Amino acid sequence: MPRRRQQGPSIYWKGDRAYADFRAFAPWGGKLEALKPEGSRTATSDPDEALSLYVARRDALKELREQHPKGLASTTDDPLDRIPPFIGYHLSVLRRGRRSGRKLTPGELQSRQKYLAHFAGYLARLRSKQHPHGVHYLREVTRDHVSAWLAEVEAHPPHANTPRPGGRRGKLSGNTLAKYLAAVRGMLKRAWQDGRISENPALKIADEDRPATARASDTPVLEVHEAALVLEAARRLPLRGGAPAENYLRLACYLLTGGRASEVDDLDKSDVDFEREEVHFRPNTSRARLKTAGSVRIVRLWPQLRDILKEYMAGPHVPAGPRLFHGADMRRWLDHVGLAVGFPKATLRGRTFRVTYATARSQTVEDGAPVALWTVMHEMGHTSIRMLEKVYNRAIRSRQRREHVEFRWEDHAAAVGHRLEAAMPSLPDNWLHVLRALPAKGQRPKAWQQASGVGVGSFYYARARLVERGLVVADERRGTFHRTANGDAALLRAQRGGVLAAEG
Fold first, then answer.
1. In sequence order, what are the residues at sequence separation of 6 or more whose Cβ sits closer than 8 angstroms to the Cβ of residue 317?
2. Distance (Å, rounded) from C-alpha 176 to C-alpha 501?
3. Three-class SS state of 11
4. 15: alpha, beta or left? (left if phi > 0; alpha if psi -120 to 50)
5. Which range has the top average pLDDT, 192-196, 276-280, 476-480?
6. H/E segment holding residue 474
7. Helix (H) or strand (E) holding 91
8. Which residues have CB under 8 Å from 72's CB, separation 6+?
9. pLDDT grade, residue 488 (50/70/90)?
10. What distance in Å separates the CA atoms of residue 452 and residue 457, rounded to the nearest whole number?
11. For 381-405, how does the pLDDT look when each residue is reduced to its tens digit (9 = 90+)?
12. SS3 helix, strand, coil % of the chain, rounded to 5?
């Protein structure tokens, strides 16, 4: 059997596989091609099927010739006319940051590469009358291709069996589908700008085929008295094993600056200016860049946060280096605090505090007039008021028209004090004995220990725990200790509990 024999004018055989010579249609993409049936990786060996495939491909090329008599401009030897090479070029431009003035993070680049690779793979597997071998050129992509690809992604999500953050499997959200579409739209926009295609087909998708992302934000917001309750509970509630002192300070920074959790966690000591009463969110020793260019900003150091930070920075828990916080994960600690005072698990998160600050800040006044939304927008690190109006500003019941953003416990103790009191655990008898032995006017440590009648080691351990819980405070100038209002409340609760036990 000869290596190649001809059947008809342009069908050739290699062994028992059929090929066709469409080089006469080279200006319209024709070449030596294998005649593959749909879904097959190899050329057909059936003469009748080969003839049918040949006629279909020839008719498609003739139709292209009628539509473009002078040939397709993109049928040159330029490799960037093909989809996979152009995706690589597009990602290299994004990696250099030439388009938006900033470089994308490695995670963002990896996500876009994944979306575009899935798009290119889908088109390469696509078989149709006009494209029996798949879609490989930018000029061949149509609106219907993009719409069908989105439907494919939604019906059969990539890595559907791989758990994603939060334990979700399978179906992708509308926001994730929108990211897929945005990645393809950006790639095709660059091809249009470079003159490789006449229009961007991703812009012509019908509204009903677009991912549904228009929904209200489900991030909870805290009322002013609830924020005060959370802040006071974080200061007073103990945690098994002892909570790091910085957790309370980080929570205060979340609530009183409106910064993103990553921005607050990476603050340097030099970012807090006590003299000018400012907090700076900017690149520092812990981070090379913020989320966006508009995220570099200055937020006022409100009096409540100033007092809390001054006490923290003068204490023993501040890190020795330039950083303000160690930045360890505190979600379990936030859940402990939230559950204790009646909030569902995972309610207290950095985004919740950010929304709470934006809402409270929008209610403050400056020189007797409501603060301008433009000011709040810049303090939040946004470049448009639309985000503030759409996501962050919420309607709450407890409004405060003040000059400062503050969540002070003494202003709301009467309203929510019962929730904190119910959450406070009872103290060990030994600690209560030490606390009760402290006079109301205060006492020096040695006299206090003698009055308690507790051994020295047990006394100093109990004293440290009482100070940690905010029941006792030290006057370093006089060298004495005093009971706080929280300490008096703890003694009152213990007394009530004893009376109830005796009555029982």
1. 244, 245, 246
2. 57
3. strand
4. left
5. 276-280
6. strand 472-475
7. helix 83-96
8. 27, 28, 29, 64, 139
9. confident
10. 13
11. 988 888 888 888 887 887 778 899 9
12. 50, 10, 40
Neighbours of 49 (CB within 10 A): 14
Mapping DSSP onto H, E and C, the string for 163-229 reads CCCCCCCCCCCHHHHHHHHHHHHHHHHHHHHCCCCCCCHHHHCCHHHCCCCCCCCCCCCCCHHHHHH
Task: Indicate the domain borders of the chain.
Answer: 6-67, 79-209, 224-410, 426-503
Structure tokens at 386: 């639309």
Long-range contacts of 501-504 (CB under 8 A, 24+ apart): none
Cα 54 from Cα 34, distance rounded (Å): 10
Q: Helices 106-125 & 83-96, crossing angle to 10 degrees?
A: 170
Name the token pair of 239.
Answer: 């945690």
Q: Region 112-128: what's the mean pLDDT?
A: 88
- pLDDT at position 255, please? 95
Dihedral of alpha carbons 93, 95, 101, 106, sign = positive
Burial class (CB in 10 A: 0-12, 13-18, 19+), 85: middle
Domain covering 79-209: architecture? Orthogonal Bundle (1.10)
Q: Return all residues near 483 (Cβ < 8 A) that are at least 6 apart.
A: 435, 438, 440, 471, 472, 491
Q: Domain 224-410 adopts which CATH fold?
A: hpI Integrase; Chain A (1.10.443)
Which helix (H) or strand (E) segment holds residue 365: the answer is strand 365-366
User: Which residue is listed with tokens 């790639």?
Assistant: 187
Residue pair 23/58 in contact (Cβ under 8 Å)? The answer is no
- What tens digit of pLDDT does each residue of 406-428 get? 999 999 888 888 888 777 777 78
* CA pair distance 96, 116, nearest whole angstrom: 18
**Chain position carrying tokens 């030897």:** 77
Residue 443's beta-bridge partner residues?
481
Q: Which two tokens stand for residue 149?
A: 């690809």
473, 476, 477, 478 alpha-carbon torsion, rounded to 10°: 70
Residue that is written with structure tokens 């698990």 in the block:
345
153, 179 contact by CB (below 8 A): no
Neighbours of 341 (CB within 10 A): 19
Q: Which CATH architecture has domain 426-503?
A: Orthogonal Bundle (1.10)
